[in-house]
Amino acid sequence: MLNCKDTTRLLSQQQDQSLSLRRRMALRFHLMMCSGCRNYNKQIDFIHKACRRFSGKE
Ligand SMILES: [Zn+2]
What we know:
Pfam families: zf-HC2
Organism: Thiohalophilus thiocyanatoxydans
Bound molecules: zinc ion
Oligomer: single chain
Domain Putative zinc-finger: 4-38
Distance between the termini: 35 Å
Protein name: Putative zinc finger protein
């Protein structure tokens, strides 16, 4: 079972590289139960997309 620290670390890792299925499942499970990490996920997702748009890769 992941704690919040592991979850936030994996979430930012996930932006650069794909995770194993097992890790993705663990992440999803934690996000289902933890609103703090859900918010964090939304934030980095938004930032990441904005960055990509700025660099013109998409
Ligand atoms: Zn959490």
